[in-house]
Amino acid sequence: MFLGTYEYRIDEKGRISLPPRFRDELRQGMVMTQGLEKCITVYSQAEWQRVSDRMAAQPANRSKARRIGRFTFATAFMAALDAQGRVAIPTPLRRYAGIEEAVVVAGVNNYFEIWSTESWEAESGLMENEAWQISEAIDESP
After folding, report:
1. Which of 52, 65, 80, 81 is most buried, taking the most CB atoms under 10 A from its CB?
2. Beta bridge pairs of residue 115
3. CATH class of domain segment(s) 5-137
4. What is the CA radius of gyration of the chain?
5. Which of 119, 105, 87, 120 is nearest to 16 (CA)?
6. Going by C-beta distance under 8 Å and a sequence separation of 6 or more, which residues neighbour residue 121?
7. Within a 10 A sphere around the Cβ of 103, how many other Cβ atoms?
8. Predicted pLDDT of residue 62
9. Quick one: DSSP state of residue 90?
């Protein structure tokens, strides 16, 4: 489970340290892809397989299923931690998310996101202002 919010800086090689609590889950590698809100979404190998299986089960004759598949898989990169617990963020993903120097790593249960600090602050403000409305709109049935 990925929990918490952490602030890091990108080094000159495009790498960031990941929270020590996240590292065990990522020792077998990870997959990074474009997130839906101009962030980078990162999955462990096991969770990526579950995401992949769910998407593969969608009918290929539906344009929205094809588009979300392209959005997710065409922008995905395999990645691995180095010995110091850092991971290189591919340039296309950094560009997509507007990441230049300071980043926020945010745990989201079974995956985590990497945001530019500016984008995270904007998203965080929206979440704080709209949390009760979002909560009421979510179907709580199992």
Report:
1. 81
2. 104
3. alpha beta
4. 16
5. 87
6. none
7. 25
8. 86
9. P
- Show pLDDT as tens, one digit a residue, over the chain (142 residues): 999 999 999 999 999 999 999 999 999 999 999 999 999 999 999 999 999 999 889 888 888 888 888 888 999 999 999 999 999 999 999 999 999 999 999 999 999 999 999 999 999 988 888 777 777 777 665 5
Report how far apart the first and last C-alpha atoms of the chain are (Å, whole number): 20
Name, in order, each residue with C-beta under 8 angstroms of 60's C-beta and a sequence gap of 6 or more.
66
Domain regions of the chain by residue span: 5-137
| 39 within 8 A of 113, measured Cβ to Cβ | yes
* Nearest-5° Cα angle at 16, 105 to 79: 90
Pairing status of strand 86-88 against strand 15-17: antiparallel
